[in-house]
Amino acid sequence: MKLAVVGATGLVGSEILEVLAEHNFAFDELLLVASERSAGKKISYKGEDYTVIGLADAVAAKPDIAIFSAGGSTSLEWAPKFAEVGTIVIDNSSAWRMDPSKKLIVPEINGKSLRIDDRIIANPNCSTIQMVLALAPLREKYGIKRIVVSTYQSVTGTGKAAVDQMMAERAGEKAEMVYPYKIDLNVLPHIDVFQENGYTKEEMKMIKETKKIFDDQTIQVTATTVRIPVMGGHSESVNVEFKKDFDLDEVRDLLSKAPGVVVQDDPSKNIYPMPLNAHKKDEVFVGRIRRDESQPNTLNMWVVADNLRKGAATNAVQIASYLVEHSMV
């Protein structure tokens, strides 16, 4: 097993290495890959130093699996080059997600759709992953008509420069402006670029990706995505209208038994999910579970996950593990 991590010097790349170590992902050779300007840098993994190599050298090495976290333009250019030499690419960018010829995978939901000839596999958007994982067991039981979601997303979703901006602002220092406005002590209803319909690209990702992952174009989805000055994870207020009525105790039971989901729902003891507690954890946390009393068959819940973990690195590593376990590599 020859494994490559492309974008190893970035926030998600670093998280991928942490998750690989924690999950004891087995490989014989590890290639840490980044842009040419980062080639030659040293990165430590499990106490051993690895030298970062460039993309061309990585393709020449013909890894079995390459986990990409290097941005959409890099993925569009280089993922096919890796695929041509027999590598299975697991891509964290948005480059391939809506390509009808590529699978968009959350292993717990649709891992079974993977086939041995899938050479480029897309990792969904972080905010989509945590929502669909929480909804999947409920959809199976009750069916879904409509989802209304508002997100409260960590600055880590933008990258290291955004974290640096927030922390500099917090320290009263001059910051490089990644966002169009100050982020500390502020809230920005603006993630990614605005589209002609008035939605942002992030909002449209959640709408389109949810339908693709569930393989159901009839589900109606509307989203508002918001950046808030926190680290540790994304939070979401999810309002879901089911096709059938539900029992709240059964909902909690279904969620508590769902793989990768943890129910934290005891308002009497102030127990509910928060980014502070989700940080560095692989699970998706669900709480504030309650009936929407304004219309039938409708549920409210609060969903939190570390966006660098299940929203990116963990999901990618789980895809790689699925491929190994099912002898697709």
Question: Overview of this structure, please?
Answer:
With 329 residues, this protein is α/β, with parallel strands linked by helices. It folds into 2 domains: 2-123 and 312-325, NAD(P)-binding Rossmann-like Domain (Rossmann fold, 3-Layer(aba) Sandwich); 127-307, 2-Layer Sandwich (Dihydrodipicolinate Reductase, domain 2). The chain contains 10 helices and 14 strands. A 6-stranded parallel sheet has the order 2-1-5-6-8-7, sandwiched between helices. Strands 10-9-11-14-13-12 form a 6-stranded mixed sheet. Strand 3 and strand 4 (48-51) form a beta hairpin. The longest helix has 17 residues, at 126-142.
Give a brief outline of the structure.
This protein folds into 2 domains: about 1-125 and about 310-325, Rossmann fold (3-Layer(aba) Sandwich); about 125-305, Dihydrodipicolinate Reductase, domain 2, CATH 3.30.360. It is of the alpha/beta class. It has a 6-stranded parallel β-sheet, sandwiched between helices.
Secondary-structure map:
Layout lengths: L1 E5 L4 H12 L6 E5 L8 E4 L2 E4 L3 H6 L4 E4 L3 H13 L3 E4 L11 E2 L2 H4 L9 E3 L3 H17 L1 E10 L6 H11 L30 H14 L5 E8 L6 E9 L5 H10 L3 E3 L11 H4 L5 E8 L6 E8 L3 H17 L4
Helix pairs in contact: 1-10, 5-7, 5-10
CATH topology of the largest domain: Dihydrodipicolinate Reductase, domain 2
Gap from first CA to last CA: 8 Å
Q: Report the uncertain regions.
A: none
The radius of gyration over CA amounts to 20 Å
Share in β-strands: 15-25%
What is the structural class? alpha/beta
CATH superfamily of the largest domain: Dihydrodipicolinate Reductase, domain 2
CATH architecture of the largest domain: 2-Layer Sandwich
3D shape: globular
The CATH class name of the largest domain reads Alpha Beta
Give the % helix: 25-40%
